[in-house]
């Protein structure tokens, strides 16, 4: 394998881990609340704008501002679930779909009004640094973002396995009637879950702001990306989101390297179609 | 602001220049009605090309005041194409329905073609401010006039100017790699480069052409592939933020070409490019039509523009948008009427000697194409684009090869 190719695969792997964290939020929300968040990418873009604003106004590095942005998005997600989505949880799916698409459109146009049409990028002082490991060149920003994404994903898994709230949320996902019978406050747990999923989005947005520029049109693109990842990995599966992100990140790089760079996005969709045909539940999803 | 260093021309100077131009154009034509000409301006003010569209809009905003001084009152009706072909078409219909007597636009080639079809059906003149696809003037539209070079002309002049840069600096690259956005503009430019490159006796081979999606989140693979070719010159045809992503990756991947040169595309001379990349934006070159820093009219436009948009960059989009409105107003003035038919009859005899862009008088051939535009080489210095060639309008000397990424202060 040539060094150039190895460098590219490493880049795809690191970027894919950040994508995974973003998709994880979508997977968590769907896995528990059973609502598909069509405003997921728009919320990611919102987090990216928050990272950009904190960097420009307070010179706060996105890695430092990440907990604050995650907290803000947690609050947003919690309030959205309590104030808006809760009323639609038991309604037909198309109504949920329309509601969240409407939220997404409002977010895109709101971003356009507030931040304008230009792309906004963050240029941290170490933004152009690279580590030389033997013949490999590792982009410092991508490495830091990937390590942070992996760490947050790990913490999230620990939360769901080892905390009472996490276990209660899993109980809601596994058996809603049973959860109600034993007296769990489902509405509250749904709101917390939507908040946690949104906090993942907030963290991923802060990290993505280091890697890519944000503009109002970023939202729909990121929604699509998150959907591809979770469908490939398995909707509702946390491990699947992680695997899907890495797979999409690396496959885009390979498609760009061996075929044509302009076919990168097309290749992701080709994988999506292949998975839907061969394994509709996704790589790590459970067959229903 | 750009670093134009020519002596400042005040509003009175602009008027004098305008009067001189008017004399050349034959001011003896009957005076038209005092009503301002209703100019429908179609621009991508939101969506993927919003930055360029907004830049054109800033140019348009200062134009009515200047043209009023020249006895050519215009009333602008600005519409957003939302960087969408269907929207461009429907907005064109709406502008005409609302009384626009001439349309101007639409920046993107595909949008322009859609608007041109509407104008042709309605008999309303369309003056293209910016759009390079050659087929725009090859489809036989009777109502379309373009004051912007075609992609082949952009490329021919863009490549020829490169040879001039090598000659002036005494350094020639050994091989080049070509990266281009795969949108309408980028594809048209790529077609022109691939067709014209072998005929222009360029002193370096083009070892690979890499097409990329302008909406790609990053260009790591594309730049990695370019680096792997071992080229020491990068020809880049971006169309917006993609040039920022490309340069950022070049720095990260320690790809050190002698220069990054665009043979006629936007991106590397825009405010966001300078703001985002800082010192890494310097020394990038773009060969394209540019505002003549030594023209009295461009200096007056610069002054008016600086006053109303002190933080915005004075660049090509502003100049071409101003000129498109000037062309329409001039035709109406010579026709002595704001009637679209009368303007259409006057447009083919346009001959505007005093204008703002580098090049000869604005005049149209039988296809409605102005063939007198001329490209210049602009190079970034300290976050500003300066004309470095042709020498008769140059503001600075070209620097080639560019200092390495890490050797910059």
Write the layout of secondary structure elements.
The complex is a heterodimer of chains A (288) and B (409).
Chain A: H1 3-33, H2 40-58, H3 62-85, H4 93-115, E1 130-133, E2 136-139, H5 140-162, H6 164-174, H7 176-181, H8 186-211, H9 218-233, H10 238-258, H11 264-278
Antiparallel strand pairs in A: 1-2
Helix pairs in contact in A: 1-5, 1-8, 1-9, 1-10, 2-3, 2-4, 2-8, 2-9, 3-8, 5-6, 5-8, 6-8, 9-10, 9-11, 10-11
Chain B: H1 11-25, E1 37-43, H2 50-69, E2 74-80, H3 85-97, E3 102-105, H4 109-122, E4 126-128, E5 144-146, H5 151-169, E6 176-181, H6 184-196, E7 206-212, H7 220-228, E8 233-237, H8 242-252, E9 259-262, H9 271-277, E10 285-289, H10 296-308, H11 316-335, H12 340-346, E11 375-381, E12 384-389
Parallel strand pairs in B: 1-2, 1-3, 3-4, 4-5, 6-7, 6-8, 8-9, 9-10
Antiparallel strand pairs in B: 10-11, 11-12
Helix pairs in contact in B: 1-10, 2-10, 2-11, 3-4, 5-6, 7-8, 8-9, 11-12
Task: Describe the protein in words.
The complex is a heterodimer of chains A (288) and B (409). By secondary structure, chain A is mainly α. Chain A contains 11 helices and 2 strands, in the order ααααββααααααα. Chain A has helices at 3-33, 40-58, 62-85, 93-115, 140-162, 164-174, 176-181, 186-211, 218-233, 238-258, 264-278; strands spanning 130-133, 136-139. A two-stranded antiparallel sheet of chain A has the order 1-2. In chain A, α1 (3-33) runs antiparallel to α10 (238-258) and α9 packs parallel to α11 (264-278). The longest helix of chain A has 31 residues, at 3-33. Chain B has 12 helices and 12 strands. In chain B, the strands form 2 sheets. Chain B has a 7-stranded mixed beta sheet, with helices on both faces. The A-B interface holds A 2, 4, 7-8, 11-12, 15, 112, 116-119, 121, 123, 127-128, 130, 137, 139, 211-213, 215-217, 221, 252-253, 256-257, 260-262, 264-265 and B 45-48, 50-51, 53-54, 182, 210-213, 215-222, 224-225, 227-228, 240-241, 244-245, 248, 251-254, 272, 276-278, 280, 405.
